Amino acid sequence: MISAVSDPFSLVANTQDAQLKQIGEKILNKERILFDEGVTLFEKGSLAYLGALANWVREQKHGNKTYFNRNFHIEPTNVCVFSCKFCSYSRLYAHREEGWELSIQQMLDIVKSYDGQPVTEVHIVGGVHPKMDLDFFIELLRSIKAHRPDLHIKAFTPVELDYMFRKAKVSIEEGMRLAHEAGLDSLPGGGAEIFHPEIRKQICEDKVDADGWLHIHKAAHQLGMHSNATLLYGHIEKFWHRIDHMERLRSLQDETGGFNTFIPLKFRNKDNDMSHIAESSVIEDMRMYAVSRLYMDNFPHIKAYWPMLGRQNAQLTLSFGVNDIDGTIDDSTKIYAMAGSEEQTPAMSTADLVRLIKQVKRQPIERGTLYNEIRDYTHVNVDEPELNATL
Ligand code: V47
Ligand code: SF4
User: Is the pLDDT of residue 144 over 50?
Assistant: First the structure.
């Protein structure tokens, strides 16, 4: 096995801190760590200690396999009735002349522009526009499926869904059933931010709360759909708020088993109402990924979203518990560019992603949204000119 960090067994055996030693022993015995132990890892665990443990767990579960997919995003609108303080992307409904609003035909044209290309997933997420209601999105889902039935539609956060269902006066269960029947295949992880009301009321007071978010994902899981979950870190939250967030997700996962992937999202501070808050350091980012791997023991996958972290830091996460780096994206999302990411035009070819993963001695595997393995690139030379042109 490849490891950029130290042997966890000797690190744990030699650690002087009794609490950290006990937690380390539990992890190496494959026992679940508890709330306070999660907080202790954040408070006292060095980068080396957390990294060695998280890398060990990652390699136990996935070896060197590192997943990516071929996807593109559609952002129907950046007009939004909500006013999350960290958001650099939305234009308030009152200032909608500064925003964009795509028609169903325009979104279908985006899908059609990928005809003949081997993309497997479209990720649809945007602001909450009062005129884009449940009927509008059901028609969108049906039109995409009618055009390209095999394209996996991963779409809408509970923020968007909650608003649509309320306006349509349907229950969450009924709304999810209608969306699923129209072609919605799975839910992305957005809108979760930090669940605890102490923080939520300061950064995104007016949108769906923790219980509403979890209820919608549970309803999706009960219909047999899978979903992801995010956590927005590195702003005003304390370590225990992060663990509280992870605990709520871990409990729902115990109940339904419907989550695929946990995605920590680093707060970026450009052009938003929280711009005065400094961004977290790379060391804090890696510690966050490592604790996520250690705490979220029932989530199979931990993802680093490269358009937000940048390519080199995404590479580094592969030694800190991460086994997925999302997809090709094709410069089709604006959320992170507008929030200050160094990735201003996020697009990577399959060859770029494969090279990035191989550079750090991991095994690149193209996956579908539900982690079905499409192609193992371990022995594929993506620099071979004829092949490279097709990737
Ligand atoms: O919920 C908004 C975040 C999320 C900022 O499921 C910000 O595969 C940092 O959830 N700094 C939406 N983050 C994106 C999302 C996502 C992305 C990639 C893959 C998947 C998946 C899901 O973006 C929002 C919010 O937490 N966000 N503004 C900001 N300034
Ligand atoms: Fe609207 Fe989403 Fe931005 Fe919040 S994060 S203001 S819900 S677009």
Answer: yes
